[in-house]
Structures are given as structure tokens and as C-alpha cells.
Amino acid sequence: MSKKVVLSGARPTGSLHIGNYLGAVQNWVRLQDEYDCYFFIADWHALTTGYEDTAGYKENIDEVVKDLYASGLDPDKCNIFLQSALKEHAELHLLFSMITPLSWLERCPTYKDQLVQMEDKNIRTYGFLGYPCLQAADILIYRADFVPVGEDQLPHIEMTREIARRFNFLYDSVFPEPQPLLTKAKVLPGLDGRKMSKSYNNTIALKDRGDVLRQKVMSMITDPARIKKDDPGHPDICPVFGYHKIFNEQEVPEIECDCKAGKIGCVACKKNLFNKLSAAMEPIHERRDEIDANPGMVREILARGTSNARKIVEETMKDVRKAMKIDWE
Ligand code: TRP
Ligand code: SF4
Question: Parallel, antiparallel, or unpaired: how do β-strands 179-182 and 146-149 relate?
């Protein structure tokens, strides 16, 4: 029996941070052993909100590919490629745009949220409204069975299923309805205790190491009630403790006890975390060094992924045109 198909996309945000890694990429690395995996960089999606400033576009793509490789994605096991290298995504998006009711797009919760949250940007565009339609094309063109995503993406997967149903109803059964694979995300706070996000400038990048990493860890906020070393602490509200839970599980009970009793200082607690974090990230840094030392490697990885993906998308588009009876010739 052939393997089930897994597909997911990442926006080219530039360097990934450890929140991206724990929330998504680590899961992709696990999936590549079991499934036929397609992981792509959603560069057209980035344009929907970032069309005004494309200065960092190429560099960001390069960084994401390097970090995906560093994280353990293996080009021998999964396909890594760029959305825009496969124009069929755009063709299917166009065809889906013909059959997708405006009301579905206008009612999409992420659309309404983003319009409010990104008030400073002009995203009242045709392209941004159609974002979920493009995402549906990305997914359905590989006839994906599973789509690993975070909870925020669920409305898009639901709309993908609706578009698949509508297409199958109007023409012919071409598309399966994909299932989301909800990632049980370990949530890692940022350096300041808020959600880790590039826009808050509170991230630890996957490539941070040595003094850069040390300084970031040492600058983390802790329980504000602890002024003197022997003040009793509240580990549950301390982001440093949250990191120990993930990167230093073994010592968690001890740290919790000592912090509450005022027996360890925050500086020592952070130094300890820095050591554990460095050790945990070492394999990622080794792979990052490998790809940094091989200038042609990013392009090779993408070329391989693209050529495998191309076979699938060409096949699907033939079926789509045929089902719609627009297969002229
Ligand atoms: N919308 C996703 C995000 O913002 C990125 C994405 C684009 C995607 N196309 C996809 C994710 C297809 C999964 C499947 O993170
Ligand atoms: Fe946080 Fe550690 Fe300080 Fe406790 S001792 S407040 S867990 S940094």
C-alpha cells in the first residue's frame, strides 16, 4: 500500500526560532519517516501581507531552507520546495476562485482578525481575501491526506474541505478531504514572557549559539517578586522555568523546590538553562554548519523537491481540467 500524503507549508519569515521548531518543524521531522511528505515554502502567501516590502524575500527563503535542513528534515526522506516554482498552484488557485463563494472568504475568522490586527498595512486586497483559496490549492493539488498545522490554521483546513466538496459536487470526484493533524504544541514563551514572535523581538533563533545564546538566556525575565537571591520564587510564572520543563526535564522537581524555598538564584538557574539549551541545540547547529559550508546545497534541495512535486501537480491538473471539461486539445 502506498504511503499517506502529508503536506504543510511555512511562510518564509527568515530565520526560524525555537518556538517554530517545537511548534511545527520538530513534528515534520517525525512525520518524514512514515509518510510521503511535501513541505513547501509559501512564498506567494508571504506576498499577501508583505507585497509592499519584498527587499528580504530571497534571503528569507534561503534562511528558512537552511533552518529546515538544520532541524533534521532530510531531502532523502521528504520533499522540500518553493511554492512559486510550481505554477500549477496558481492555476488551481485561479480555478478554485471561480467556485468559491465570496461569503466563505469574507466570513473566515482569520481574515477578520488580521484586518483588525494589521490595521497599519493595506491588506484590503483581492489577494489577501483569497488567501484560504490559495492554501486550498496548495493542499489539494497533492491530494494530501493530512495537514499538520497549528490551531490558528483550522479555519483554512475547513475551507479546504469545503472547496474540495464543492469541486467534487460540481464536476467529478477529484479531491479527497484532508484532515488536519493538530500539533500538540509545546508552548515556549519568548524572552520577555510573551508569546515568542519575531514582531515582539523576543525570540531565540535556531542558529543562536555561544555568547549570543548566553546573552539572550541571561536577559530573560524571571519572577519579578524575587529581588534578593533568598526571596521565595514562583516558578510557575517564570519563563525560565518553562524552558527547564522542556530542555531540562530531569532537574525540574529540584529547581521547583529550590526556587520556591529561595535556595537558588536566578543567575545560576539561567546559567544552568543555557548549558542544557546549548547541548540540546548542538545537533541542529552541526547541520546548520554543514549547509552553510556548502553553497550549492539550498538550490539542490529545492530542485529535488520541485522535481518530485512537479510529477504530482501535473497529474492532478490533468484530472482537474478533464473533470471541468476544459481540457482543450
Ligand atoms: N497559512 C499557513 C501559515 O500561515 C502557511 C500555508 C500556506 C500552509 N499554504 C499551506 C500550511 C498549506 C499548510 C498547508 O502558516
Ligand atoms: Fe525562575 Fe529559576 Fe529564578 Fe525561579 S530561580 S524565578 S525558576 S529563574
Answer: parallel
Q: Is 302 in the pocket of ligand 2 (CB under 6 A)?
A: no
Whether the model pTM is above 0.70 = yes
Q: What is the pLDDT of residues 165-217, one digit of tens each?
A: 999 999 999 999 999 999 777 778 999 999 898 889 999 999 999 999 999 99
What is the rounded CA–CA span in Å between residue 165 and residue 142?
Answer: 16
Q: Which of 133, 128, 97 minimizes the C-alpha distance to 113?
A: 128
Element (H, E) at 78: strand 78-82
Q: Would you state the pLDDT for residue 227?
A: 85
Beta carbon of 220 within 6 Å of any ligand 2 atom: no
Q: Residue 203, exposed/middle/buried by CB under 10 A (0-12, 13-18, 19+)?
A: buried
HSE of 166 in the Cβ direction (CA atoms, 13 Å)?
16
Ligand nearest to the CA of 217: 2
Q: How many helices (H) and strands (E) does the chain have?
A: 15, 5
Give the three-state DSSP class for 218: helix
